[in-house]
Design a protein that fits this description.
Elements: E1 19-22, E2 25-28, E3 31-32, H1 33-39, H2 42-51, H3 57-71, H4 75-81, H5 91-102, H6 114-138, H7 153-162, H8 168-180, H9 188-198, H10 203-214, H11 222-233, H12 239-248, H13 268-281, H14 285-302, H15 308-318, H16 326-347
Antiparallel strand pairs: 1-2, 2-3
């Protein structure tokens, strides 16, 4: 029997052309994340992950048109949120339910022809933005906002969420955030998506399963907890005392360190830059200053560097986004990666069926209940 690897750490479970992490550098289909974050639209990155190449002008416009077309939900989806859109229901719970419900409005949900799968991927990518924003508005007693075909995917999300067009700085920051979160090799939720569809289940099942995996605080919830920490600290004068207490109690400081990156998360610097810009634009510069001080102390005391979640928290907060929507936004971005992994899994599929080492008792015999 092969040696146990807890958490499958170091186990190679798939071959992929989607993304790679080599020597602490993240690439999408061979393109350095630095190059994409500086220059690309999120729509271009979607296409790249699904096709292993960047689109030409015609292909990009076709993708944009389809995303706009599919963003509007079936009327029953909007009314569906009225049944449970309250503050008592976490948006990730709502998203898990609503992604599954999407399948009811796709007459060909079980068609695994490659063209049908690709079109379904665009459909899900478009609609997941509307699911998150519609839930958020309905629970506040507001009507959902339909997409604006003149806006990019990133701008449309913010517009559908808030009902007003975002600033250029906000669109730049949100577009970067979507790109930086789009894929991350064989992470827990991507692996979950591949496992689900490896049985030849439908793409909606794969995405629903991935949402369920991302919901866990060890995977997708870190930036929400970063914002909770910043709120508890409140002032730059409180940083040292807060961290000393946390260190003394051996508490984990959210938004620092990474299982894969030993020399620092290459995505963090872009969100640090956007955090600086957006907090300044919105008059919340102290949040950025608090973040810098936390980062300095954690580096000095623990030798840990910020990861992508640390600065994304202040970026989203400064845009007026509710803190419990941070993980659903992660899901909106990561759907592009999940779709890519599902498409890739099904091109050369074999059902996932690992083994387990049995460590329980052996040679036991059944006894009648009156003798137990």
């Amino acid at each position: 029997m092969a040696q146990l690897q807890k958490g499958l750490e170091g186990v190679i479970a798939a071959e992929t052309k989607i993304s790679s992490i080599i020597d602490s550098q993240l690439t999408y289909a061979g393109y350095d994340i630095d190059d994409l974050a500086e220059n690309a639209l999120f729509e271009e990155v979607m296409f790249l992950l699904w096709n292993y190449r960047l689109p030409n002008e015609k292909e990009l416009q076709e993708l944009k048109d389809k995303l706009h077309h599919y963003m509007t939900l079936n009327p029953r989806m909007y009314s569906h949120f009225e049944e449970y859109a309250t503050d008592e229901v976490h948006p990730m719970t709502a998203l898990r339910t609503s992604v599954s419900y999407l399948a009811h409005f796709d007459d060909n949900a079980d068609d695994n022809d490659e063209k049908a799968l690709y079109e379904r991927g665009i459909r899900i990518q478009a609609k997941i933005a509307s699911l998150v924003t519609s839930f958020a508005r309905v629970r506040e007693g507001k009507k959902p906002v339909k997409p604006d075909t003149s806006l990019s995917y990133a701008a449309n999300f913010l517009y559908m969420l808030r009902g007003e067009k975002p600033t250029d700085v906000e669109v730049e920051g949100f577009n970067k955030a979507l790109i930086l979160h789009a894929d991350h090799e064989l992470n827990a939720s991507a692996f979950t998506a591949r496992c689900a569809v490896s049985s030849m289940s439908d793409m909606y099942s794969g995405i629903t399963a991935a949402v369920g995996s991302l919901k866990g605080p060890l995977h997708g919830g870190a930036n929400e907890r970063v914002m909770r920490m910043l709120t508890e600290i409140g002032s730059i004068d409180n940083v040292e005392a807060y961290l000393k207490k946390a260190f003394d109690n051996k508490e984990k400081i959210m938004g620092f360190g990474h299982r894969v990156y030993k020399d620092g998360d290459p995505r963090a610097k872009y969100l640090k830059e956007m955090s600086h810009k957006i907090t300044e634009e919105t008059g919340q510069s102290e949040l950025f200053e608090i973040s810098l001080k936390i980062a300095d102390i954690v580096k000095q005391e623990k030798g840990l560097l910020p990861n992508v979640d640390f600065y994304s928290a202040t970026v989203y907060h400064s845009m007026g986004i509710d803190h419990d929507l941070f993980t659903p936004i992660f899901a909106v971005s990561r759907t592009s990666g999940w779709v890519a992994h599902i498409l890739e899994q099904l091109r050369n599929n074999r059902i996932m069926r690992p083994r387990a080492t049995y460590i329980g008792e052996t040679d036991r015999k059944y006894e009648p209940i009156e003798k137990r």
